[in-house]
């Protein structure tokens, strides 16, 4: 089992770049509004402050991180913790030089929306190194001043190493040397930096400011938002084959998405999140077509959906599961998916397309394990050597491996009615709606045919039961069951019998009458009402005979 390595992804510190392309700036702003963090870190012991702008993503979305490095410089480092949703190794684009951070915030400020307030606060961060000894030289005769960034440069300029300014001013010839910043100035700057750090922490827990109605953004901005938070997917069971969504703690950004690309916004109480979703066929296609040219980390997902053939939503849904940050090395998978799409487009007709996508017989292949520093592992399908295009057998193997690795979120159209697949064991089982709820019918089977046969058997038994309920025998059995339940209630004392009516051992009722001061049995009957009726008839006849 191979071990995951961060080495191919990490990048050394590069100086800040200042691109002028509006689409590049808009994309970066969208990515920062979702996955970006503007903060000032305060060291616990030394109290040294470090301003930074970071963007974190799982390794599956490393293209977005790499794009930010290529366009803006900075560095790419290993994130200390894995991604929360996939437990995959995470990468971080990191910008920590104070001057670079303030310049970056100034570049993105006109394009940011929800995090513009954090950028404004960070732009006020006081620059300068408070730990370096800056020296100011003043000519006591002419009043001329000279500033030296370090004490060493000052000593070299004066031609003596005796100059020391930490304990006060030092006079040498006609010049007076003293620290450029007094201790009071340093304390004031340090207090201001800590104030900015606390303000950024406070803003992190304050709802986003509303976005004015006249504010608009280019598609590149929403591509950055999509690479950060939007989930691209297909829905095989509905008329609309596309469904795209995002979740956010506050409602401002989902409302902005709805205002621009329609869709719906709802509040999910269980997750305490606002959920934006666009599922209408035209609206979903318009959104994807608008952002696709600018996507970086999720471009392969967009290509899958845009080039999806008719009837292929189920398999594309399964392929998308394997492109959502679940693999240690996404590049081979992107190449495989593109080869898959090329083979689909080269198919002579739609029947051949569906045959290619549904015919799967090869077993799943284990992939490399993941070492993210804290344990845990992941699996995927190993990449085959690159080729001009996959054969039919290779394509079937790919589709089967993907399907057996993660399973379908919903049962694909190829499964017959009443047959479903377990997402963990990958076994098939029969399922039937009983009283309005789907019920799993044991046991599980290795093949679809066995599960379909089990479903047909259970369905036939239920149909026989329904037909039985319409017969006279069923009515008689129901009456017998009712008599048995009544007899149990009588024996338990829950039901009181009429006078001179007794329950027998065979769950029948014996009727007696009073004749000449003695009880006389007149018959045994199936129901209490029959026994009471027999008593009334006997008394009536006996009274008439007496008269």
Summarize this entry quickly.
This protein has 547 residues and is of the alpha+beta class. It is 41% helix and 20% strand. The strands form 5 sheets. A 5-stranded antiparallel beta sheet has the order 1-4-5-3-2.
What does this structure look like?
The longest helix has 22 residues. The chain is built from 17 helices and 19 strands. About 12% of the residues have low confidence. The chain is an alpha+beta fold and 547 residues long. The strands form 5 sheets. A 5-stranded antiparallel β-sheet has the order 1-4-5-3-2. It has a 4-stranded antiparallel β-sheet with strand order 7-6-9-8. Strands 10-11-13-12 form a 4-stranded antiparallel β-sheet. It folds into 4 domains: 129 residues, Homing endonucleases (Endonuclease I-creI), CATH 3.10.28; 46 residues, no CATH class; 202 residues, Endonuclease I-creI (Roll); 54 residues. Helix 3 crosses helix 4. 30% of the residues are buried. It is 41% helix and 20% strand.
Biggest beta sheet summary: 5 strands, antiparallel
Please report the total strand number as a whole number: 19
Structural class: alpha+beta
The share of residues in helices is 40-55%
Classify the oligomer. single chain
Give the total of domains.
4
The top level CATH class name of the largest domain: Alpha Beta
